[in-house]
């Protein structure tokens, strides 16, 4: 931009002193117009377009082709994975089928280096529990898993079902487990206790059968071991998870406000002890009979160090999944943060 001449500058100063009453806007523009830079011509950039949209058609076709290739590869991978797990599951179900015989289950787990002392499973109620058949299936699965644990020598089992229907049928579940244990073990079934948080425990002392003098020493040893077994089952629901932590937090806060407990006494160990007593202790192994890891609101405090096992693409409760979980647990390395 060029500098204004002395004459034009003087005229603009006088116009400014008189509050722009000396010159009209048109006169001011005419006065400074020779000194303004020439406007640059705008060049319109127009994207060349094909007359028949060939480029757009090719681009769209390329996108569709890439999507089809990716979708085909992924679908093929999913089908191959499902087929592989189905074949592997069938092999395990044939090789390790228990035939409702505790001795066969004992033989299967005998070669494992260790077994969990506390096993937990998650069961799901399909179709929102419509009809009695779904509840019957759920109770039957719980009883079957209990029999597997008793046969394998696992002393404690916790069963989580989100809606709490098993807790509501506490006595019925206990009777179903007793019948299943009697079907597996006969008259010498293990002692049983079924409990739930804030619910009285139902206990069964277990069956005993006197042996004849002609029984062999190995049979006597096996019978004594069977009668000495005890299986403890805890039924859990979603209300025993985060809600119990919230309730404990409120209780501790109220006790601290009333002076019944010092705030310095509230620690991780105290919370852990209270939750272990009111809900359950931490399980060593958690088995999911589902195709993916979905905890469904399982008590979060109790699974900090728990080994979690599931079989991809599995949709049902099966002994082969149970055995594979025990085998995986036996090989797992518990470093506990080290």
UniProtKB/TrEMBL annotation:
Subcellular location as annotated: Endoplasmic reticulum membrane
This protein's UniProt keywords: Endoplasmic reticulum, Magnesium, Membrane, Transferase, Transmembrane, Transmembrane helix
Gene Ontology molecular function, alphabetical: ditrans,polycis-polyprenyl diphosphate synthase [(2E,6E)-farnesyl diphosphate specific] activity
Catalysed reactions, as listed in the record: n isopentenyl diphosphate + (2E,6E)-farnesyl diphosphate = a di-trans,poly-cis-polyprenyl diphosphate + n diphosphate
Pfam families noted in UniProt: Prenyltransf
EC numbers for this chain: 2.5.1.87
Extent of Low complexity compositional bias: 211-223
Region of interest: Disordered: 196-223
Pathway this chain belongs to: Protein modification; protein glycosylation
KW Transferase (keyword) present: yes
Cofactor(s) for this UniProt protein: Mg(2+)
This protein's GO CC annotations: dehydrodolichyl diphosphate synthase complex; endoplasmic reticulum membrane
Source organism, top-level taxon: Eukaryota
Assigned protein family: Belongs to the UPP synthase family.
Name of the protein: ditrans,polycis-polyprenyl diphosphate synthase [(2E,6E)-farnesyldiphosphate specific]
Organism field: Coniochaeta pulveracea
Source organism phylogeny: Eukaryota, Fungi, Dikarya, Ascomycota, Pezizomycotina
């Amino acid at each position: 931009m060029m500098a204004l001449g002395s004459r034009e500058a003087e005229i603009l100063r006088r116009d400014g002193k008189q509050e722009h009453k000396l010159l009209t806007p048109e006169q001011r523009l005419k006065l400074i117009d020779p000194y303004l830079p020439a406007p640059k011509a705008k060049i319109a950039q127009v994207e060349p377009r094909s007359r028949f949209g060939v480029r757009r058609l090719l681009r769209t076709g390329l996108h569709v082709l890439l999507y089809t290739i990716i979708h085909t590869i992924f679908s093929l991978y999913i089908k191959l994975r499902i087929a592989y797990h189905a074949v592997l599951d069938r092999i395990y179900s044939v090789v390790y089928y228990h035939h409702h015989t505790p001795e066969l289950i004992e033989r299967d787990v005998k070669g494992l280096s260790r077994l969990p002392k506390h096993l937990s499973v998650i069961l799901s109620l399909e179709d929102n529990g419509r009809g009695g058949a779904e509840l019957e299936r759920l109770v039957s699965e719980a009883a079957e898993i209990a029999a597997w644990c008793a046969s394998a020598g696992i002393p404690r089992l916790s069963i989580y079902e989100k809606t709490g229907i098993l807790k509501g049928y506490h006595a019925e579940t206990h009777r179903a487990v007793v019948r299943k244990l009697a079907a597996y073990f006969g008259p010498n079934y293990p002692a049983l206790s079924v409990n739930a948080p804030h619910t009285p425990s139902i206990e069964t002392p277990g069956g005993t059968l006197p042996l004849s003098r002609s029984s062999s020493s190995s049979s006597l040893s096996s019978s004594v071991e069977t009668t000495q077994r005890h299986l403890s089952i805890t039924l859990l629901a979603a209300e025993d998870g985060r809600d119990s932590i919230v309730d404990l937090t409120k209780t501790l806060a109220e006790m601290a406000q009333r002076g019944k407990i010092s705030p310095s006494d509230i620690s991780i160990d105290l919370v852990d002890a209270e939750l272990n007593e009111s809900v359950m202790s931490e399980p060593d192994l958690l088995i999911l009979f589902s195709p993916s890891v979905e905890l469904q609101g399982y008590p979060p405090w109790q699974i900090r160090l728990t080994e979690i096992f599931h079989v991809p693409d599995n949709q049902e409760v099966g002994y082969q999944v149970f055995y594979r979980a025990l085998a995986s647990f036996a090989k797992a390395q518990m470093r506990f943060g080290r």
